Amino acid sequence: RARRIGGGRAARDSGAMSRVARTALAATGVFAVSGAASGALIDEYGGIAGALEWVLRTLVVISAAVALAAAFVLVLRLRRRLRPRPLAWAATMLAATGFLFFVVQPSVFAVYLTHLPTRRAVHDTDLGAAKQPVTLTTASGPRVHGWYVPSRNGAAVAVMHGTGSNRLGVADHARLLARHGYGVLLFDFRGHGESDGRSTSLPSALQEDADAALAYLRSRPDVRAGRIGAIGVSLGGEVAVHAVARRPEWRAAVLEGVQGGSPADMRASKPDPASYATLTALYGLGRVLGGSAPPASNPDQIERIAPRPLLLLSSGQSTEARANEEYQRRAGRTAALWNLPAARHAAALRTDPAGYERHVIGFLDRALR
């Protein structure tokens, strides 16, 4: 009888495993198809195509969650197939850890960067000087909203925020610049804050926003020709690298927390093998879900920025710091690097306000004079 009970349990486990496996396989298929289709339509935000993209975006999030959960259950059930029990538990925990690190982590982050809504509400805030609302029209149609503080010294700077943030995330930067007389344009990337469009954190999808910001500053009567710069923080820095490289009208740039997403960028940051594998999966999946081609490498783009002045800000002592050391080397003598070993990512202004003011304002005063 014990054998029959055990056999019945094994049969039920086998059936359950089969159902879980079928669920994981089906959800993975839905994720692959909806992800690729959503990536192809990611720039659509109106009409039938926009509605279809919203449906596909929802399917991507749901199917990814189901596929990862079902696959994780399968991994945990490995312990029932191995003997002896201590070995089974050890192997299962090792497999579960690897699955979480190499599969779940890059998959969740890729979906977050390309598909999850990350809008944060924009509320009024004091920038230390009079500001005016701005609406920028991009080449493909989405309207980008922001604020502009008029220039008192003939120079102006566009400040670009990070992932999942909006213009309020760089309000402290704007206050500092305005206090020193700079015109300041801070805006919400498409899909963020009050701007049109779907949420995405792929730098290639946000280039039109940077181009619209440049066009606006060039049209301002208070801004003199040749005195326009950019400050990019985290995602904003990744956007600015490519925008400034493409358009020589940007005369100087401050890039904070930039690491890039190409194989060349990963080689520059010298990650350990496990991190390299995870980043490769993240960037590859992100490009599929975001419908973008492999990006040009940051080292190549930074070479194109030279000999225009460039200030690089990095934090910590690992991959970000090493990547920016390589960027400085590639840019040559017109690039400066300020590393804050104890700072968190993209937190230079909060970590050392006086040092930030000295480095950044001093740099801009020289570069945009």
TrEMBL record:
Coiled-coil intervals: none
Family designation: Belongs to the AB hydrolase superfamily.
Protein name: Serine aminopeptidase S33 domain-containing protein
Gene Ontology MF terms: carboxylic ester hydrolase activity
TM region positions: 20-42, 54-76, 88-113
Domain Serine aminopeptidase S33 stretches: 155-262
One family name in Pfam for this protein: Hydrolase_4
InterPro entries: AB_hydrolase_fold (IPR029058), FrsA_esterase (IPR050261), Hydrolase_4 (IPR022742)
Keywords: Hydrolase, Membrane, Transmembrane, Transmembrane helix
